[in-house]
TrEMBL record:
Keywords: DNA-binding, Nucleus, Transcription, Transcription regulation. Pfam families: TFIIF_beta, TFIIF_beta_N. Residues 187-250 form the TFIIF beta subunit HTH domain. The lineage of its organism: Eukaryota, Metazoa, Ecdysozoa, Arthropoda, Chelicerata. This is General transcription factor IIF subunit 2. Residues 15-158 form the TFIIF beta subunit N-terminal domain. The gene is LOC106478035.
Length: 259
């Protein structure tokens, strides 16, 4: 694990700073206001009870920014709620960026590898909008935006060519075409079907039902009726799910009974 050592400028160690929390809409505008020289003005006045009244007014150029991509109307007037920070030691550091002239220009160039102690936190503040017409308008816009559905139905005028639904799948179409090509299977004379079966069993001893269906081209229910008369069905290995002729119809010798 590498450790990076940086020089710290502590010239401002005795300076007191405020730690202020601002609304998100203010921080968003500040991030996009690099070209502005003034973002707002802070006013501290004596209030009742000896406590100061602190108000903050955003710069008009910041409120009326047009290139933020946000059409929300933000309030300009705010007030500060200030409190002390007991039993805590907080400090603010910055990392100056600038040229090699030795003068810090924050936000420009690369880091010079030096940290600056800007001061220690003496008070904590919270920037709150003043309840007026501008603020109520902001709240209405926020509620309307939150109530908008994330997805919406959009009517299109042209057919989208990326995906076109099909009425039927390829395998179903091929099956129907094959079924039409083979034609409807009609029952042949029983004697004729038995002759076809005997001829087939002269070539092989065992057949499955699908092969016998292709050979005889007969409906399966009708074929099963005939097979039950002249064949035995094997439900066990090694010839499971296969048909073979009954012994009385065989024209060949059983290998297990050969003498």
């Amino acid at each position: 694990m590498s450790v990076v050592e940086k020089e710290i400028d502590c010239a401002n160690a005795a300076r007191g700073v405020w730690l202020v929390k601002v609304p998100k809409y203010i921080s968003t505008r500040w991030e996009k206001a690099e070209s502005l020289t003034e973002v707002g003005r802070l006013k501290i006045a004596k209030g009742s009870g000896g406590k100061p009244e602190i108000t903050f007014k955003l710069a008009e150029d910041l409120v009326n920014m047009k290139d933020t991509g946000d059409k929300t109307v933000i309030p300009r007037d705010h007030q500060f709620a200030v409190s002390t920070i007991p039993n805590q030691v907080l400090a603010v550091f910055s990392e100056p960026r600038g040229d090699n002239s030795g003068e810090s220009t924050l936000g420009q160039g690369e880091s010079n590898g030096k940290l600056v102690l800007e001061g220690h936190v003496v008070q904590k503040g919270e920037c709150r909008p003043i309840v007026n017409e501008k603020y109520m308008q902001l709240k209405r816009q926020s509620i309307l935006q939150a109530s908008q559905p994330q997805r919406s139905v959009k009517q299109i005028a042209k057919i989208v060519q990326n995906f076109k639904p099909v009425s039927d799948h390829k395998n179903n179409i091929e099956f129907e075409q094959r079924k039409k090509a083979e034609g409807k299977k009609s029952r042949e004379d029983k004697e004729k079907v038995m002759d076809m079966l005997f001829a087939a069993f002269e070539k092989h001893q065992y057949y499955n039902l699908k092969d016998l269906e292709k050979i005889t081209r007969q409906p399966i229910p009708y074929l099963k009726e005939i097979l039950k008369e002249i064949c035995n069905y094997n439900a066990k290995n090694p010839h499971k799910n296969m048909w073979e002729l009954k012994p009385e119809f065989r024209h060949y010798k059983d290998k297990n009974n050969t003498s």
